[in-house]
Write a structure and sequence with these properties.
CATH class of the domain at 42-102: Alpha Beta
Structural class: little secondary structure
Strand order of the largest sheet: 1-2
Region (Disordered): 1-38
Distance between the termini: 106 Å
Radius of gyration: 36 Å
CATH architecture of the domain at 42-102: 2-Layer Sandwich
CATH topology of the domain at 42-102: Herpes Virus-1
Number of strands: 4
Helix content: 10-25%
Oligomer: single chain
């Protein structure tokens, strides 16, 4: 009997489930995981503390020295108020650009808020 390609011959024999060989018992082996890329531990130039991976930081544009963002901004504000230049603590490079990151809180005039009168009389004693 001829069969078309891809057809199988049907038989009356019951289907036998395929079984896999019994598992071979082995001692547990620690999985070798590829080394994770570690960020180098950086120390803040101001406080000499480690800067964590999810902590905001600012680097000097000249020598790449790293600062905690909040500490450098505080120092920048203080030196600006004293009319002192803001230079890198390591290379003395100009870091006055950091002052551009310091933003003053917006004034109500720039928020588009219109003043309004409240005609509400609150009397808590009646």
């Amino acid at each position: 009997m001829m069969r078309a390609q891809g057809q199988t011959e049907q038989s009356d024999e019951p289907l036998v489930p395929l079984t896999s060989p019994p598992p071979v018992l082995q001692e547990p082996v620690e999985e070798q995981q590829p080394p994770q890329e570690q960020l180098p531990v950086e120390k803040c130039v101001i406080c000499q503390e480690d800067i964590g991976p999810d902590v905001a930081r600012i680097a000097c544009r000249t020598c790449d020295s790293v600062y905690h963002q909040n500490e450098l901004l505080d120092m920048a504000i203080q030196l600006n108020n004293e009319e002192q230049p803001l230079d890198c603590c390591v290379c003395d490079g100009d870091m006055s650009w950091v002052l551009e990151l310091v933003t003053a809180p917006p004034s109500p005039d720039h928020l588009g808020i219109q003043p309004t009168e409240l005609n509400i009389h609150i009397d808590n004693f009646n």
